[in-house]
Amino acid sequence: MRQNYTVNIPELAQFTQIIMDLSDDLITVIDQQGMIVAMNTAASRLLGVRPAQMIGRSLVQAVYGGKKFDYQGNYLSPLVETLETGREFKNIETKIKSPLLKSDFVCRTTTGLLRDAQGYAAAAYAYDKNLTEARYLERTNENLKEVLHTQQLQTVLAFTEAIGTRDNYTRGHSERVAEYAQMIATAMGLPDISQLVYIAALVHDVGKIGIPEHILNKPGRLTEAEYQVIKQHSVLGANILKKVDSFSDLVAIVRAHHERYDGNGYPDGLRGEEIPLISRIISVADAFEAMTSDRSYRRRFSIEQALAELRRCAGSQFDPVIVDNFIKLVIGTGWGKSLG
Ligand SMILES: [Fe+2]
Which Pfam family, just one, is annotated for this protein (predicted)? Predict the structure, then answer.
């Protein structure tokens, strides 16, 4: 039997808050003026504030330090963009760049307008799905879950976070290399190892933790001596991973990620198939990511230039079969366009 009852508005607001707080994902609602009217604890926890401190404040002021646009004129907040332009987003990958955060927060964002009875926009909401952790869990198949329990996954997360904090250039780099490497493995018909590829690629530069910061982040050219120091990171990384039992599969892979197909790489001068397959895959993904990202000393290559360079070095630096597969993957799926 249906029962009619009314809920008064303050109670409703309280219930809504309770429901929002059940979510691990970030929920924020702003009114027509861009003032925060609701924020769940997941969002406020991420920002290191209490929800009560945020309610009634301008989102742009409170979260983005008063900045509405980035230097290219794009909205920093998809939520503000939705409010001001009416453009709604569904599951787009975004990065929250807030002065309140130590590093960018990667999430999958859905925004929308809330309209009043007359159809006018009364408020806008954003739902930010936390990808930083979801991504790893998503990519971890049952098989690997048996080996890598949550605790080990957290260790991987801590490692990648640690590398990112030390090395400006590596921030986000490992995640992208991991994605490319996993796509290569899948394209090569190696789904069984694709999870291992992903994890190995995430931690491939973990040894950079042991490289002095002034060398790691040196803006100019490295001297020969400094280059020798940087080169130690693959061995250092392998030695770090050796200390964690469940990472034993990763040790040889990380050690060999700078080996070259022709035997002129380091640290062991392995050649061809002596180099672990996953290291050969990471090497291609790593080079492609580096070439297609801006560096302080040069602009990024176009996708075409980067692919041409991979092709040029196939057989010398890279495994030609992997390069072939990668080029097919990028061209065949039109995937390169989304990167450019
Ligand atoms: Fe490396």
Answer: HD_5
Ligand 1 center–CA 148 separation, angstroms = 23
Paired with 93 in beta bridges are: 108
Of 132, 147, 176, the one marking the end of a domain is 132
Q: Are 54 and 62 in contact (CB under 8 A)?
A: yes
d(CA 173, CA 205): 10
Report which DSSP code applies to 35.
B
Active-site residue, 90 included:
no
31 three-class SS: strand
Which residue among the candidates 208, 231, 242, 337 is catalytic per the annotation?
Answer: 208
Q: Residues 91, 112: contact at Cβ < 8 Å? A: no
201 CA distance to ligand 1 middle (Å): 10
Render pLDDT for 110-150 as a digit per residue (tens, 0 to 9). Answer: 999 988 888 888 889 999 987 765 554 555 444 455 545 55
Query: What's the confidence (pLDDT) of residue 62?
Result: 92
How far is the centre of ligand 1, averaged over its atoms, from the C-alpha of 207 (Å)?
8
CA atoms within 13 A on the CB side of 98: 19
Number of domains in the chain: 2
Which of 107, 132, 157 finishes a domain?
A: 132
Mark whether 176 and 302 lie in a shared domain.
yes
Residue 1 placed within a domain: no
In angstroms, the CA 150 to CA 146 distance is 10
Its sign, for the CA torsion 42, 43, 45, 46, is positive
Tell me the pLDDT tens digit for each residue of 237-250: 999 888 877 788 89
